């Protein structure tokens, strides 16, 4: 797949000053869900309007943006997922009491978009990188969902001491991530189809949007993490 140096992706805009009260601001999150073992990514398709997109949506009240990204990824695509810590240039400080133990891998958004909802309402959308869940964890959360009458189950975070290579050891034998059915929460989301696509095909279908660059940068970061772990 083309990297960001050769792919004609977008560049950041100039900083802006704007103020919105809670009645005029919507916060959302989206996610590129990678199947690390086969270098594929989940892409959704609107079956009636005919366009491709990465899953995204508004976070719930009181929900963290990270969890909102994972939940929206699941509801719109049917694939359980969790954010993947990646090496990423960012401007957030490390927690003061963890500076000596800080990891080079973070779960910060790779892109942030500002989009108007109306003439008076602003939408802020954070884009994250995630992975499909290991088969045993997917099965466990599915069982817990049944016990709790369909309530969404927040997955545990990626284990801090686990490498990508160790993580993939649990998927030997050609495991295919499970796409859960009927996870959309409204009539609109019931129209969405989802597909695990090779990276180049996904980027082609998303070309011209920030989502294509989320895939490109996300996979570059996955490869960078694997290289760092192997040195």
Give an overview of the whole structure.
By secondary structure, this protein is α+β, with helices and mostly antiparallel strands. 26% of the residues lie in helices and 22% in strands. The protein is built from 5 helices and 8 strands, in the order E-E-E-E-H-E-E-E-H-H-E-H-H. Strands 1, 2, 3, 4, 5, 6, 7 and 8 form an 8-stranded mixed beta sheet that branches. Strand 2 (40-46) and strand 3 (52-53) form a beta hairpin. The longest helix is centred in the last third of the chain and has 21 residues, at 210-230.
Q: Strand content of the residues, in percent?
A: 15-25%
Tell me the overall shape.
Answer: globular
Question: First CA to last CA: what distance?
Answer: 23 Å
Determine Rg (CA atoms, Å): 18 Å
Helical element count?
5
SSE order: EEEEHEEEHHEHH
Tell me roughly what share of residues is in helical segments: 25-40%
Say how many strands there are: 8
| Arithmetic mean of pLDDT | 93
Major sheet characteristics = 8 strands, mixed
pLDDT < 50 runs, ≥5 residues: none
Structural class: alpha+beta
